[in-house]
């Protein structure tokens, strides 16, 4: 069967677009061929900076002839029906139709339609120009004299030639003849721009690849990657170094060369005082080079880097390595300048006093200065959620509340033999560290290095904090508060890091919920799903107890939502007033508002009455928002637990819309799971479900026939009495155990119900003739359901 | 083309030799060799020989050196790579010839960059000038990892679709010269290719000016005067465009005052750059200044299409 070779050669395609473009080309062409009635055995795409290529094997040479019959109306049908049939079948007169007979229906018309198959070449020649014209490049352009006219061809960069050959292995392939905007498909291509500038005539894929290779073009990008990686490792090894591998960079570099040649360059050791990450990113972002470490070193970099050239230079690459070294040096000089500048005083220090006072900052310290500046410049975080300064103030408050909760938990203190006074001092220290870390957490956004490399946020803050002598817990928390960034990222375990990390994420989540910008479908521009998963992982993997006890009850996440929501509401309200004031000023300026009105607005802002009104209206809105956010957390939690292997139905059984204690939910799921692993549990589940089903059927009836309470005097059977006693006992014990948060004990207490429930259903007929007895028995069943409901909604459990 | 170059005029020895070599190369190709525009501009693109001539259907091939001013890049002569005044070598070819990449590589060979010794690469870089309402696709051209030129296929200029597309090559002359001369500090470049007492360096010519202009740009430029100049240039540009607008009675609806109006657009742009360097423009104002210059450029471009040079055919 014939094979198809297609090459679209152009000027240099941006590296980031090549892989996808080649894949799109394969999909568009193979889909088109199949749709036109052809089949193929295999198709593979290739790309280099200057070409997209496609190798399709075993393509059928023609599409099949198509014959179909369209049934029409009876020969005795009215004229109108016959005309309708002719139109539909595309026949010009009834003479072109055939007449078929059927023993039941009699004679009727049938149209015989036949479409002859087409040669694959013809189909390809028609398909390819259409694909080129509608190709989904992220950005495309026009060029050359043809671009004088509207509708001229667009491509990612000027398209120079097309190779398109087709034919079986045993024969000389033919050029599929088509033309698009003056470019005619042929069998001529070109090799490496500098090493092999002459034309190459190709026949089919096999000689195409080998001729290109001879012309210093490695067609297969994955092979180029292998070559680069292997050579880079070798050159590093030969110099006593280890390559710092970087898959994304490797992918990009493989899209910048047709003939990879790995070389090593160097820079002065003095630059190694710059943090390794900064060096790596500087060299990577600007020069697309790899960095190396001394052999066996974990973090330190060496002053050698690996570059990938596109030629085998006449001098073995000396000039190239030297030239690249010069550019790297110039870039590292900039980086060194940034790194040093960030450790010095800001020029506008005299304007920062007010902001410094607001956050208790020490303007003798560089990072404190940057935070003051972040606030002073009113850098916007989000139009509706205010400035970064306001955000940091909120995070600080929230972190303070969270760390107070954490400092009650013994698992965050290593020794437990200490005196109360020592413990108290430690708690105070923890609180101070958490608020300090929160205040400095975003300061590095104002540093030069983070301005240049945003991905270093946090990591730079940590370094600068350590340099100005911050406590290590504070410095670490500045970096760790962004974590975890996903399902497999590292989860911080120090209470200071946890407090700031939770505060940052909760502030973001509550804020976006308060302004109603929740993720929808695949859109989650502020990565709120990731933030919520982060909270889930922080709480569960550190077993954090976030509860606060009030006389009216206990809250966990909901308490923190409320605190954050209040802060956000005040901010939203102030910003609303600020806009209002601005408008008022403008109106006053043009004489449309009596002067003095502004101060009335200001008075209104701080009056008790206004505050009360605000509180009234916001309470309902808050509750709605909080429950919606909690449901979002439940979804994240389910995904997380399912990934851990927990049963979906068990999670549903223990969650209610108000369940805000993530840790408790998990413990209940675990306890429930172990209960259901036992025979007692399985039978209890069956019994409880049976009871629930009977009750559900009864409760559907208009007249409720279930007694309000169980009346022991109406018991007739021993099994009834035993069950009643057991339910009372189990309910009490389970309730007690839940109070003590011992869910296993609660499950154990319930599991003893198995035997009395079983014998009840065995010996007692619920449907007694005496309505009072029946109602009483139903009430007893309701008690079983109530007892189990304490731990989970058994009706949601499958099985 | 083979021209015997004396050693002291060779690009590897002489800054002016580099310029002359490029002139020879592009003149031989068929470009008009134009002179720098006599106004302060931020880049070679601002020269009307590029901005305006890139518009309309007429053939246009030109090359020239353009002194370019970027007030914010002043470093008081202390940075070896950064200057507030530097030279761009600009080539504009409309429509772009199909072998523009080869022509460009030929120019590198002409100045002594051997593509089998040096690693020359075309790396994605999409050019955009918000103030000119212009954008195009192309590359930054790397020589051993250093960006030495910008290569752009103009798609839009003055907010108007280019038909046909023009190709623009911009060489950073100082960088390229540092490369071919093997010099690490721009001020050490040999300007005239002579040695000993006759040698003049780039620093001899420009160091003092860099120091003085840095002072001017950052410290002393009179901002209230500049703000006034911006308003004046903007108003004058609009007034000239109005005055030159074809009247309904004109036989041929030809605009009569595009180039003078465009000068005012250039002036506004440079004044804006100075104000920006003086730090008197806030982040939010910045956007609106850029937009104002862009509107002037757009109006000039539209007017240019109504002139003979813009392709308006005689009736």
UniProtKB/TrEMBL annotation, chain A:
BP-aspect Gene Ontology terms: arginyl-tRNA aminoacylation; glycyl-tRNA aminoacylation
Record-listed E.C. numbers: 6.1.1.14
Family the entry assigns: Belongs to the class-II aminoacyl-tRNA synthetase family.
Cellular component terms per the entry's GO annotation: cytosol
Superkingdom, taxonomy of origin: Bacteria
Catalytic activity entry: tRNA(Gly) + glycine + ATP = glycyl-tRNA(Gly) + AMP + diphosphate
Protein name: Glycine--tRNA ligase beta subunit
Self-association state and partner proteins as the record states: Tetramer of two alpha and two beta subunits.
Domain DALR anticodon binding stretches: 688-785
Keywords tagged on the record: Aminoacyl-tRNA synthetase, ATP-binding, Cytoplasm, Ligase, Nucleotide-binding, Protein biosynthesis
PANTHER family: GLYCINE--TRNA LIGASE, CHLOROPLASTIC_MITOCHONDRIAL 2, GLYCYL-TRNA SYNTHETASE
Leading EC class: ligase
The UniProt record lists the keyword Metal-binding: no
Compartment list: Cytoplasm
From TrEMBL, chain B:
Record's catalysed reaction(s): tRNA(Gly) + glycine + ATP = glycyl-tRNA(Gly) + AMP + diphosphate
Gene3D superfamilies in the record: Bira Bifunctional Protein, Domain 2, Class II aaRS and biotin synthetases, domain 2
Short name of any one Pfam family annotated for the protein: tRNA-synt_2e
EC number per UniProt: 6.1.1.14
One MF term in the entry's GO annotations: ATP binding
Broadest EC class assigned to this enzyme: ligase
Record GO biological process: glycyl-tRNA aminoacylation
Keywords tagged on the record: Aminoacyl-tRNA synthetase, ATP-binding, Cytoplasm, Ligase, Nucleotide-binding, Protein biosynthesis
An example Gene Ontology CC term for this record: cytosol
Localisation: Cytoplasm
Subunit structure: Tetramer of two alpha and two beta subunits.
Family: Belongs to the class-II aminoacyl-tRNA synthetase family.
NCBIfam families, alphabetized: glyQ, PRK09348.1
Name of the protein: Glycine--tRNA ligase alpha subunit
Lineage of the species this protein comes from: Bacteria, Pseudomonadati, Pseudomonadota, Alphaproteobacteria, Hyphomicrobiales
């Amino acid at each position: 069967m014939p094979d198809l070779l297609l090459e679209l050669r152009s000027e240099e395609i941006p590296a980031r677009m090549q892989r996808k473009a080649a894949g799109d080309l394969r999909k568009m062409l193979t889909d088109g061929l199949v749709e036109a009635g052809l089949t193929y055995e295999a198709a593979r795409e290739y790309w280099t900076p200057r070409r997209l290529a496609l190798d399709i094997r075993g393509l059928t040479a023609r599409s099949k002839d198509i014959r179909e019959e369209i049934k029409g109306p009876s020969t005795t049908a009215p004229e109108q029906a016959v005309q309708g049939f002719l139109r539909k079948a595309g026949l010009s007169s009834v003479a072109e139709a055939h007449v078929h007979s059927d023993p039941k229906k009699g004679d009727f018309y049938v149209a015989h339609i036949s479409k002859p198959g087409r040669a694959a070449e013809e189909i390809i020649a028609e398909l390819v120009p259409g694909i080129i014209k509608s190709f989904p490049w992220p950005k495309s352009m026009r060029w050359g004299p043809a671009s004088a006219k509207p509708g001229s061809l667009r491509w990612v960069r000027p398209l120079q030639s097309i190779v398109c050959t087709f034919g079986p292995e045993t024969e000389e392939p033919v050029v599929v003849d088509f033309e698009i905007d003056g470019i005619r498909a042929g069998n001529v291509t070109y090799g490496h721009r500098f090493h092999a500038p002459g034309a190459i005539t190709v026949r089919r894929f096999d000689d195409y690849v080998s001729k290109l290779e001879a012309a210093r073009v490695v067609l297969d990008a994955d092979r180029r990657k292998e070559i680069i990686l292997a050579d880079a490792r070798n050159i590093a090894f030969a110099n006593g170094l280890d390559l710092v591998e970087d898959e994304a960079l490797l992918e990009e570099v493989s899209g910048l060369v047709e003939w990879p040649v790995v070389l090593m360059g160097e820079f002065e050791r003095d630059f190694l005082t710059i943090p390794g990450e900064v060096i790596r990113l500087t060299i990577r972002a600007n020069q697309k080079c790899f960095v190396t470490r001394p052999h066996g070193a974990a973090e330190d970099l060496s002053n050698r880097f690996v570059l990938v050239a596109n030629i085998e230079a006449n001098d073995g690459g000396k000039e190239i390595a030297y030239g690249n070294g010069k550019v790297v040096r110039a870039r590292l000089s900039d980086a060194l300048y940034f790194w040093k500048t960030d450790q010095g005083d800001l020029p506008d220090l005299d304007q920062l006093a007010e902001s410094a006072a607001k956050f208790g900052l020490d303007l003798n310290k560089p990072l404190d200065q940057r935070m003051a500046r972040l606030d002073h410049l009113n850098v916007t975080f989000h139009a509706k959620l205010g400035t970064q300064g306001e955000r940091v103030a909120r995070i600080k408050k929230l972190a303070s509340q969270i760390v107070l909760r954490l400092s009650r938990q013994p698992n965050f203190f290593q020794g437990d033999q200490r005196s109360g006074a020592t413990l108290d001092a430690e708690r105070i220290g923890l609180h101070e560290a958490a608020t300090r870390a929160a205040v400095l957490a975003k300061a590095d956004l104002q540093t030069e290095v983070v301005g240049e490399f945003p991905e270093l946020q946090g990591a730079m803050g940590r370094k600068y904090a350590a340099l100005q002598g911050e406590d290590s817990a504070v410095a670490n928390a500045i970096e760790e508060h962004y974590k975890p960034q996903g399902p497999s990222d590292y989860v911080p375990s120090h209470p200071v890091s946890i407090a700031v990390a939770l505060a940052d994420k909760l502030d973001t989540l509550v804020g976006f919920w308060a302004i109603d910008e929740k993720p929808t479908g695949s859109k989650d521009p502020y990565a709120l799903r990731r933030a919520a998963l982060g909270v889930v992982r922080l709480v569960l993997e550190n077993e954090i107890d976030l509860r606060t006890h009030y006389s009216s009850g206990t809250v966990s996440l909901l308490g923190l939502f409320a605190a954050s929501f209040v802060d956000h509401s005040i901010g939203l309200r102030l910003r609303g007033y600020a806009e209002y004031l601005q408008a008022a000023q403008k109106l006053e300026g043009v004489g449309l508002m009596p002067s003095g009105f502004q101060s009335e607005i200001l008075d209104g802002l701080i009056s008790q009455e206004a505050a009360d009104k605000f509180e009234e209206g916001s309470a309902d809105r808050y509750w709605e928002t909080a429950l919606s956010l909690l449901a979002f957390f439940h979804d994240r939690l389910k995904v997380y637990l399912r990934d851990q292997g927990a049963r979906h139905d068990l999670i549903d059984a223990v969650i209610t819309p108000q369940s805000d204690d993530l840790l408790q939910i998990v413990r209940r799921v675990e306890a429930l799971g172990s209960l259901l692993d036992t025979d007692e549990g399985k039978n209890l589940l069956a019994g409880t479900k049976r009871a629930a089903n009977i009750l559900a059927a009864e409760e559907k009836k208009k007249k409720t026939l279930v007694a309000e309470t169980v009346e022991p005097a109406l018991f007739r059977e021993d099994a009834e009495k035993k069950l009643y006693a057991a339910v009372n006992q189990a309910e009490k014990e389970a309730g007690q155990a839940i109070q003590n948060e011992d869910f296993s004990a609660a499950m154990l207490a319930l599991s003893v119900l198995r035997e009395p429930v079983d014998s009840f259903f065995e010996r007692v007929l619920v449907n007694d003739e005496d309505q009072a007895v029946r109602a009483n028995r139903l009430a007893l069943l309701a008690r079983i359901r109530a007892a189990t409901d304490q731990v989970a909604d058994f009706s949601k459990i499958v099985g | 083309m083979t021209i015997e170059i004396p050693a002291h005029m060779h690009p590897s020895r002489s800054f002016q030799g580099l310029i002359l070599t490029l002139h020879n190369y592009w003149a031989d190709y068929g470009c008009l060799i134009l002179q720098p525009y006599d106004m302060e501009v931020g880049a070679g693109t601002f020269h009307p020989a590029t901005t305006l001539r890139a518009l309309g259907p007429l053939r246009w091939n030109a090359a020239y050196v353009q002194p370019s001013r970027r007030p914010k890049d002043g470093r008081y002569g202390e940075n070896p790579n950064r200057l507030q005044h530097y030279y761009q070598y600009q080539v504009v070819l409309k429509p772009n010839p199909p072998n523009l990449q080869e022509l460009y590589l030929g120019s590198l060979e002409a100045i002594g960059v051997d593509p089998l010794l040096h690693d020359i690469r075309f790396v994605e870089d999409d050019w955009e000038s918000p103030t000119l309402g212009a954008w195009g696709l192309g590359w930054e051209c790397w020589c051993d990892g250093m960006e030495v030129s910008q290569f752009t296929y103009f798609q839009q200029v003055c907010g108007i679709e280019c038909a046909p597309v023009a190709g623009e090559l911009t060489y950073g002359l100082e960088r390229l010269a540092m490369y071919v001369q093997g010099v690490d500090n721009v001020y050490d470049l040999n300007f005239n290719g002579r040695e000993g007492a006759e040698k003049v360096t780039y620093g001899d010519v420009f160091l003092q000016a860099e120091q003085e202009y840095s002072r001017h740009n950052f410290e002393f430029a009179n901002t209230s005067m500049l703000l006034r100049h911006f308003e004046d240039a903007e108003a004058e540009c609009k007034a000239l465009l109005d005055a030159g607008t074809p009247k309904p009675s004109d036989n041929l609806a030809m605009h009569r005052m595009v180039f003078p109006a465009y000068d005012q657009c250039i002036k506004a742009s440079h004044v804006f750059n100075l104000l920006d360097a003086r730090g008197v423009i806030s982040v939010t104002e910045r956007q609106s200044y850029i937009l104002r210059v862009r509107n002037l450029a757009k109006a000039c471009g539209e007017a240019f299409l109504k002139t003979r040079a813009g392709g308006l055919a005689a009736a």
